[in-house]
Specification:
This protein is of the alpha/beta class. The chain is built from 3 helices and 8 strands. The radius of gyration is 16 Å and the shape is globular.
Amino acid sequence: MSIYIEHANITVKSIAESLKLLQAALPEFRVRGEGDGSERKWLHFGDDKTYITLNEALDSSGKVSRKDYSRSGVNHLAFVVDDIDGVDQRLKAEGFESDPQFQEDSDIRRRYYYEDANGLEWEFVQYLTDDLEARNQY
């Protein structure tokens, strides 16, 4: 059996704000389902095998501040992509910028981080080698 993550379930201030970034970065994904149940709005964004669940927070008062990695919680999700330049161009067209301080451009990988209007950080990485030993060098 091959192990993979089926989905990540994230609560956000605004589904629309996170979806804007994700749709620009990952055009291969689609909205698989959504609802506005008695408890909250939700949406599944992905493909037939994997997806992200976005739940709208019940208390939407105020912007979530960027995590400083010193507190408990998810810091970001990372997606492996085939064309980091394409992701970057689509995100820039939607008004998102990657912070150059946190970019990595090496012979092994190119990695960019973006923040959505909910204050969530999303990582996109393109590997330039199929050598798994090289990919896992730290």
